[in-house]
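Moderator note: this is an archived Q&A kept for reference. The question asked for a predicted structure of one protein chain; the sequence and the answer are reproduced below.
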Amino acid sequence: MENDSRPQPDQPAEPRQVYIARPVVPAEQPLSDEVKRRHAISAEKYPSLNLSDAEYIISAVRRHPIGMAAPVILTVLIISFIASVLINFSIIMNALGIYAPPPFGTVLLIGLLLMAAVAVGGYISIWIYTNNRFYLTNESVIQEIQTGLFSRHEQTVSLENIEDASYYQSGIIQVLFNYGSIRLSTEGDETTYRFSYVANPKEQIATLNNAVEAFKNGRPIQYNN
């Protein structure tokens, strides 16, 4: 038998498996001393906020004091009315034709308890109002929302997801006292976030827009702190 000297077709190569080793956890980027310093200051000043290792506060926005006017005025008026009734109790009884009124000591105790309850209610209203806060960090916007004495929640929006940030003022009172509302809208889910009674809203929105632009373009955020 003669050997077949014709060239044989190339045999297909067997498949090979290539393994590439990579770390399970991506390497963390080193933080500058300035970022560490700002983070430490923010964490100490705002311990209730859950900040990342590289996150720090740029602006802490609180509500304008004018929003406390209504509960303060209402509380003072009610307490003044109760006090006036106590002071003129005998005159009021005579004017109503009541010649056997209840003991003044009992009426005084009830009046004092009512005034204390009104004062506590006014304080709680102001406490709830002032505990609604809005924070701008170098990574996100954090809003602390206090709706009741025991009702509180927090909203966090990444600067990357903010599509539009604007403010508006309605009426001569808001313009004269320079307060208004901030409005944020996000990409994707089209959620809108609002924060009312913001002092100097135009300046706050300018700071926020600068932070969003710097974050999306990978530039350091400049601010005066």
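Archived answer notes: The chain has six helices and seven strands.
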